[in-house]
Amino acid sequence: MIYILIAIVVFIVLLYLIITNRKVFGAEAKGERLERMQQSRHYKDNQFQNLSYTPSLAEGYTFSRVLYDFFFKKKNPLLKPLKNIPSIHTDLKNIPKDQDVFVWLGHSSYYIQTDGVSFLIDPVLSLYGSPFKFFNKAFTGADIFKPEDIPVLDYLVITHDHYDHLDYPTIKAIKNRVNTVILPLGVGAHLERWGYRPDQLIEEEWGDDAVLKNEIKITFTPARHFSGRKVKRNVTLWTSYVLETPTKKIFLGGDSGYDTHFKMIGDKYESFDYAIIENGQYNEAWKYIHALPEDVIQASIDVNSKNIIPVHSSKFALALHAWNEPLERVTNHGKEKNLNILTPMIGEPVDLNKTDHQFEAWWKD
pTM here? Predict the structure, then answer.
């Protein structure tokens, strides 16, 4: 009997190693990159740490309860949309270089062009937000942008290495159209395995910055989240960014639970023209790593942004709420606080030089 158990364990281990050795799972840091990680002030006990203590689950929740709810609890009838998500297929390749524009591509993927420089953030343009094609399929209508729609890029920007932000098929497909990649410490190991050159990567940690083309500066700022593409977590860093150009200031929030870092960023930079903040795929059980809509509003107040663009919704069902609940809740909370919540459809261009944005409540239909 003991030999059978040993054989089963060995089989499981070998199967795991075979599966996770596929390119989609990326690579672990080693050599000089690992040394840099180990010297980071945010790295302790062989993993990166948040600024504040951040449990995986909120008080009163257990992994068994969360798993039960996810697999066995009756699903919300609107967990997935009943019809196609409204969207517009903007031709990104033909946007004039003198236009300053934001285009949401669904979930946390978006394209920014400002001051003559192009940025693509966290592109997930394959049909699945996971390492497996049978899991986490994109909603119809939210999947209209493909890797071939992406123009030649000045900068590809990655906030962390989760599959719904760092998509191997997309990153591989656009490789020859990417000039430079901006990404947090440790994540470069994945891209180097996927064919990117080390000299293409700007790979830093919170507090570091880089001067880009056309007098643009990007700064790595904290987020409250976690990372990992395999069982082991937090072996790469996660980040938000502050993008400062000659004409505007933009906060790229990445994935983050609410914490004091939003106020710290707001105090340092005083105000932002736009804050692009995660709003969706949340649950009270994991509120420390994914902001609830009311937290999004407080974070927007903390960073003192003139305009807030909520993302991280309307493409994948990664939580148990209705697909359109995040936008409904965040816009309602925003009205109560007299905030400018911008809600373009997927693919609908947002003129970053306008001051009177108006968008339909397209998720209500």
Answer: 0.95
